[in-house]
Design goal:
Blueprint lengths: L2 H14 L5 H17 L9 H27 L30 H16 L3 H40 L19 H7 L1 H22 L6 H20 L12
Length: 250
């Protein structure tokens, strides 16, 4: 099999499990974090005040990734930029808004969302491994997606791809989004990611304290996690109601 076909085949397979396979890396990061919690000298940051600010920074990195995803999803039409896992879906080619700055904004958002917990470990080598894993993992997914789009949209796709970078944005060709921002679509599609951020950070903190035999839990994290879960459950219950019904074309 030619390398091009092999990359595409791998990308199609990874696309189906792109939401679950990275969880394995998350568990590795959790194990590293718990080990460091039992051996505090393993942490790079020792000052408790700086450590609190660093935690806020890590959460902010993940929230920044969620913001990128929300902005992307909020401005895109129906049957594009979704969380589908069965097969590639693209009724239209997105070329305006954030898609005029980068070809794969959702994966840029995913990178920052996963980077937050990775940074929390304070382990340089794990973070290097995470970046390399993300590169290889999503490179193949992006390759498979681009092959699909190239076949479907032909010259329209290639003309857009030639002036739009794959992963590192450039704003010199920014075009205003064609569609207005839809909070309804964001709330329907991105509620999982928002809740997951606070749950993950809370789990890291709680498990570390329990493993150490202490109960100095970060109450703010617990409250944030509980609130995010409640919001998720409410939005899930409202998903099929008129309150979160998608606008036509969105």
């Amino acid at each position: 099999m030619a390398l091009q076909e092999e990359f595409e085949q791998q990308g199609v397979w990874l696309f189906k499990y792109r939401g679950t396979l990275p969880i394995l890396i998350l568990f590795i990061g959790l194990a590293i974090y718990l080990y460091a919690a039992l051996n505090p000298s393993e942490f790079l940051i020792q000052d408790p005040i700086i450590k609190n600010y660093y935690l806020i920074f890590c959460i902010a990195v993940s929230l920044f990734g969620q913001y990128i995803r929300a902005y992307t999803v909020g401005h895109t039409p129906k049957n594009t930029s979704g969380r589908n896992t069965g097969k590639q879906v693209a009724d239209t080619l997105n070329t305006t808004g954030i898609y005029s700055t980068v070809r794969h904004p959702l994966y840029v958002g995913n990178f920052f969302m996963w980077l937050g917990p990775a940074l929390l470990t304070e382990n340089i080598w794990f973070n290097v491994a995470f970046v390399l894993f993300y590169w290889v993992y999503y490179e193949r997914i992006m390759f498979a997606e681009e092959q699909f789009l190239r076949r479907k949209f032909k010259e329209v796709y290639t003309d857009w791809a030639e002036k739009t970078p794959a992963f590192i944005p450039t704003f010199k060709n920014f075009k205003k989004p064609n569609l207005p921002f839809s909070w309804k679509k964001v709330l329907k599609k991105e509620k999982n990611g928002f809740a997951a951020i606070f749950i993950i950070f809370c789990v890291f903190d709680v498990l570390a304290e329990l493993l150490k035999g202490t109960q100095n839990f970060n109450i703010s994290l617990i409250i944030a996690a509980v609130v995010s879960i409640v919001i998720y459950l409410i939005l899930k219950a409202l998903k099929r109601s008129a309150l979160l019904r998608q606008e036509d074309g969105m």
